[in-house]
Write a structure and sequence with these properties.
By secondary structure, the chain is of the alpha+beta class. Strands 1-2-3-4-5 form a five-stranded mixed beta sheet. Strand 3 and strand 4 form a beta hairpin. Helix 1 packs across helix 2. The longest helix is centred in the N-terminal third of the chain and has 33 residues. It starts with a strand and ends in a 15-residue tail after the last helix.
Length: 160
């Protein structure tokens, strides 16, 4: 496996991988949890939202970077991050790994790659967020294994 910078021809696979990775959260966790009204207004267009986001994820001139895990020419995962030089902060905005390659340390390697890049470009700390639900349990385990400190945050939704 090699970790390399994003190339424009990677976009289709990253989009497919993102929808495959996060679909179970939106459809099987979030939707039943909050109901149809909140779901429709908060994340009802999640596929389209990801397509829009991914098209703007890699803009190094604005401090936005993406690296992919390439296994013999096939993308098995990726990480997207941003650097805010004024605050000396890096932020991992998205991380996705193909289900067939989870628990193979790809996510760890991708995060460490991003951390190194952030350090090399002036970041002194990193922020990573994830959900507190069961779906995001593996992400929390990963981030804690990387030495990240979890802050308790509560977000509430209610249909009116």
């Amino acid at each position: 496996m090699i970790i390399r910078s994003f190339e424009p021809q990677d976009l289709a696979r990253l989009t497919e991988l993102t929808i495959e990775t996060f679909g179970p959260f939106y459809e099987n966790s979030f939707r039943p949890l909050v109901g149809e009204v909140v779901f429709a207004r908060q994340h009802g267009r999640w596929r389209e939202d990801y397509r829009t986001l991914l098209a703007t994820l890699y803009t190094p001139e604005h401090g936005k970077h993406v690296a992919v895990a390439d296994l013999d020419g096939a993308i098995a995962g990726y990480v997207g991050w941003e650097i805010d030089p004024a605050r000396e902060r890096g932020t991992i905005g998205i991380l996705a790994v193909d289900p067939h390659h989870r628990r193979d340390h790809l996510a760890t390697d991708l995060c460490e790659y991003a951390f190194g890049h952030m350090r090399d470009h002036g970041a002194r700390y990193v922020e990573i967020g994830t959900g507190g639900d069961e779906f995001h349990g593996p992400a929390r385990e990963l981030y804690e294994s990387l030495g990240c400190v979890k802050l308790p945050v509560a977000v509430y939704f209610r249909e009116l």
